[in-house]
Amino acid sequence: MNNSLKITSWNVNSLKVCLKNGFEDFVSSSGADILCLQEIKTDKIDLPVRGYHEYWNSGKQKGYAGVLILTKQKPLDIIYGVDNDEFDNEGRCMTLEFKDYYIVNIYVPTSVNKNLERYYFRLDFDEAFRAFVENLMRYKPVIICGDFNVAHQYIDINANCSRNVETPPGFLPQEREGFEQLLSLGLFDVYRHLNPDKRIYTWFSNYKAKDSKERRLDFGSRIDYFLVSNELIDCVQDATIHSDIEGSDHCPISLLLSV
Questions:
Q1: Is 107 an active-site residue?
Q2: Which residue of the set 33, 126, 147, 224 is catalytic?
Q3: What CATH number labels 4-258?
């Protein structure tokens, strides 16, 4: 393995809005070979970027969820969803197969709701996604990226975000356990593997593109991740959270691998 592969992941929280807030400049300067986007909230539109193959999974509900992958190298195959009809109409997952690995772009549902309906939906989604990933790993190593809507450990959430750090959705014991079970398949949380003691966040609530008090005060959570199979962890060269990039309530994250 002597070539580098750069993958960037970003929950853009509306692609059309992000396009007005620096998306094109970020893509052109990122140097990404593969760009995975979540929460695009749109059907296919013309993008002002060139040199990428585009793969869209917008879901059935207009203006909601959806994922998109831009890749310079054409994949061998594309898998839409997690092979479960209950979840695959929301456009939350897309997988590209390459010769030596799978790239999985994921947008996990949030538990936030006035009732428990989405809470149980999310826990069931976690289980379905874990089964989907486990099946992929029988054939090739996986690289998973996206918005998991969970802060794994106390170091991944700012205690000032809530009066009670135990209670906010995204840090509930069942959500964290679901993430832990996913890792137990033989996956590494790359950023935490490289930075075991560093506090840094990828998502900030009440976000305004041009003036985010929460981001300025560093009141956030780390809920966006790169996970890689243990076969690939020695290929990792770097993992970065791009805290300086605005345009969404999430920061882009990137992974550099030797492949």
A1: yes
A2: 147
A3: 3.60.10.10
